[in-house]
Each structure stands twice: as C-alpha cells, then as structure tokens.
Write a structure and sequence with these properties.
There is one protein chain. The chain is an all-beta fold. The mean pLDDT is 90. Strands 1-5-6-4-3-2 form a 6-stranded mixed sheet, with no helix packed on it. It has strands at 29-33, 36-37, 43-47, 50-55, 62-70, 74-79.
Length: 80
C-alpha cells in the first residue's frame, strides 16, 4: 500500500465529488408542495429529492413556482 506523505502544516486534500445532474433548470416552472419552512422563512419543497427554497412559501401550500437561482445542492424559486 502506498503511503502519502503530507508536509507538516499542509491541509489534507479533499475528495472531488462529481456534480450530479439536477432535476431542475433555470426558468423551469412546475407545481410543488411546500413540506417545511426554513430558518430564514422560505418554504422548502423537493423535486426528485433535490431541495428547492420557495420564497414566501408556507408549510402545506401547493404552489406553482419558477426556478430563479440554481446552486450545487439546492435551488431557489418564486411563486408564480
């Protein structure tokens, strides 16, 4: 087994995790159910397990949304 020698004081290397395809794209419009409300007051919904923060969404609300921001692990949407 090869041992890697890390110089003293050096930061350990991080594993690069490939970015998975997202089930939403910028500008997509569809209906979701808000399942929870986040700490900043936005509704939280999911599409195929992918988290979507719905601005002004309330728990239990079924809303039509438009994706306005897309990040690596979540999206932000507005009600339309």
């Amino acid at each position: 087994m090869d041992e890697q020698i890390v110089p003293e004081g050096a930061a350990p290397q991080r594993k690069v995790i490939p970015e998975l395809p997202k089930p939403v794209k910028m500008g997509d419009e569809f209906e979701v159910t808000v399942n929870a409300v986040g700490g900043k007051g936005d509704g939280i919904a999911k599409k195929d397990g992918f988290v979507i923060f719905v601005q002004g969404g309330q728990k239990g609300e079924v809303v039509r949304i438009r994706i306005t921001e897309l990040k690596r692990s979540f999206a932000v949407a507005q009600k339309i």
